[in-house]
Amino acid sequence: MLNLLGRVQGWSDAPLTEKGRAVASHLGTGLADAGVRIDAAYAADMLRHGETISLALGELPYAGEIVRDERLREMAFGRFEGASNTEMWGAISGELEKANGGPVAEDEFDFDVALAAMVRLNEGSGLVAETAAQVAERALAALNAIAEAQAANGGGNVLVVSSGITIVSAISAMGANLDRVTTGIGNGAVTELRYSAGDWTVVTVNDLSFVEAGQAAQAAEAATA
Predict the structure, then answer these.
(1) Which residue spans within 15-104 are E strands per DSSP?
(2) What is the mean pLDDT of residues 11-20?
(3) CATH number, domain 18-73+131-224
(4) Of 25, 51, 136, 166, which residue is the least packed, with the fewest Cβ within 10 Å?
(5) Model-level pTM?
(6) Strand order in the sheet with 158-161
(7) Number of H helices, E strands in the chain
(8) From residue 86, how far is each of 6, 7, 80, 82, 90 by CA, in Å?
(9) Spans of all domains in the chain
(10) What is the pLDDT averaged over residues 78-104?
């Protein structure tokens, strides 16, 4: 809901919109129709993550528990939480211009540098604001713990629900090629990771095929009902 309102949503939280709930359901249907079996499920501890994973798993034959982990949260934006995106990015732009001695050319814009500027703008606020490196560190700690726990249980497929910047930060730290992720991670997109003997392999990034297949399947079922 906050995304729809154009407001910053990191550690702030809001429920999914009707469209968002549909996307989560489509994801579950797409995974089920592809024969994907889920052996364990984890999600960040916010409302939107809980709704997403519950709706997706509702379309799958999964009867296990859902473990919530705050380390899978989106990045914290400090004093900009709940503010308009225009306000935050305007402030960041001003901070970058000040550091650069003038406007930053579009082809010189660096997202990580911009996020570091956001953290500087939070200095003295008493609120938590994170760099991409800090987000990657906590997310990787969570993913490593999840993978080790599942490996000790015989392995299998684990569904983990997080948020866009957190996903990008984590897989970037794993060495993923993000050249094609120019507009961020799509809602319901699947990024497939493989874990073996302490090493991660990024198999796919930002794959919306399961959502698209699930949407088509649900539409076809509705048309024949």
Answers:
(1) 40-43, 66-68
(2) 97
(3) 3.40.50.1240
(4) 51
(5) 0.94
(6) 66-68, 40-43, 158-161
(7) 7, 5
(8) 8, 8, 10, 11, 6
(9) 18-73+131-224
(10) 94
Q: Which amino acid is at 109?
A: F
Biggest alpha carbon distance in the chain?
A: 63
Do strands 193-196 and 199-202 pair parallel, antiparallel, or not at all (unpaired)? antiparallel
Backbone angles phi, psi at 79, to 5 degrees: -70, -10
The pLDDT, as a whole number, for residue 121 is: 97
Give the pair of three-digit tokens for residue 148.
Answer: 């080790």
pLDDT of residue 103: 87
The pLDDT of residue 104: 85
Specify which residues 43 forms β-bridges with: 68, 161
Joined together, the tokens standing for residue 151 give: 């490996």
What H or E segment, with its residue span, contains residue 72? Answer: none
For the segment 102-120, what is each residue's pLDDT rounded down to a tens digit?
A: 888 887 888 899 999 999 9
59-81 confidence digits (pLDDT tens):
999 999 999 999 999 999 999 99
What are the phi and psi torsion angles at 75 (to 5°)? -55, 145
Contact 154, 160 (CB under 8 A): no
The SS3 call for residue 122 is coil
Spatial CA neighbour of 90 closest among 112, 121, 113? 121
End-to-end CA distance of the chain: 31
